[in-house]
Each structure stands twice: as C-alpha cells, then as structure tokens.
C-alpha cells in the first residue's frame, strides 16, 4: 500500500520546518507596510504639496486628505493583521492576503503621486501574499508547539 504524499494528507502532525520563517517574514512585512501606509497617510494629511501631482493627476481623483485617511486606516489594519498572523490565526492569514491585495490596489491608484514608494509597496505586498499563501499552514503548528 502506498503512503500518502504528505503527512498532512494522512492527518498526521508534522514538525514545523524552517518555512515558518516566511510567515514571520510576511507578518513583519505587514507590520512594516502598515507603518509605511501610516507615514504616507500622515504626509498626505499634513503636506499634500510633497507629492508629484495634484489630485487631478491621480488615477482616482480624491483630495489628499481623503487619500491620507485611506492610507492611515489601511496602515493600522495591515499592522494589526500582521500581529495576528504571528499568533497563527487562520482568519489573519486570509485577511492578510485580502488586505495585501487591497494595499497593492491602493498603491497602484496612488502611483502617479509617489511612484518609487508605491512600486516598492506593491512589491512588498506581493511578497506578503506569497508568504501567507504558500507557507501559512505551518505557523499554527509552530505556535502550538511553542516555537
């Protein structure tokens, strides 16, 4: 009789591997991205002349106060979800992927105002999505074992 392809297929538990590090990386990136969003939001709220274009040059024509609040709220949500991912919560992984996708879209819409920063944020969002989707299952087992 052939053995299952993975221990998870048979229901057996497996020791977490070093891939758990990608989840820790993803959660730390989420905390950092949240901080970056918050900083970008504060700049938009207090120094809207800092950006390369006015509100008419943006993909979505909103004033910088609206963009500032969007980035600030998104930053808090991203950072809080990143902390929850560290605790191995399944809802946090799913929410983290959705929020990282939303963060990438927000940065895509804000690209004209701050191209280099927005491109960097989109790249980090993609890394977070990859880490949470590919290696997310091992974090809960690591937390249960006290790693």
UniProtKB/TrEMBL annotation:
Keyword Transmembrane: yes
DUF7144 domain span: 22-136
Transmembrane segments: 20-46, 66-87, 94-114, 120-137
Keywords from the named record: Membrane, Transmembrane, Transmembrane helix
UniProt feature coiled coil, ranges: none
InterPro entries, per the entry: DUF7144
Name of the protein described by the UniProt record: DUF7144 domain-containing protein
Protein source organism: Nocardioides pinisoli
């Amino acid at each position: 009789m052939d053995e299952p392809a993975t221990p998870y297929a048979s229901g057996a538990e497996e020791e977490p591997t070093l891939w758990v590090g990608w989840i820790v990386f993803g959660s730390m990136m989420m905390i950092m991205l949240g901080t970056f969003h918050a900083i970008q939001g504060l700049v938009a709220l207090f120094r809207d002349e800092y950006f390369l274009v006015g509100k008419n040059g943006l993909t979505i024509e909103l004033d910088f106060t609206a963009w500032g609040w969007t980035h600030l709220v998104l930053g808090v949500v991203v950072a809080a979800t990143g902390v929850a991912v560290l605790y191995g919560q399944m809802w946090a992984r799913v929410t983290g992927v959705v929020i990282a996708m939303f963060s990438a879209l927000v940065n895509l819409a804000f690209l004209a105002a701050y191209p280099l920063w927005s491109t960097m944020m989109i790249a980090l969002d993609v890394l977070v999505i990859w880490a949470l989707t590919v290696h997310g299952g091992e974090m809960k087992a690591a937390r249960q074992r006290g790693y």
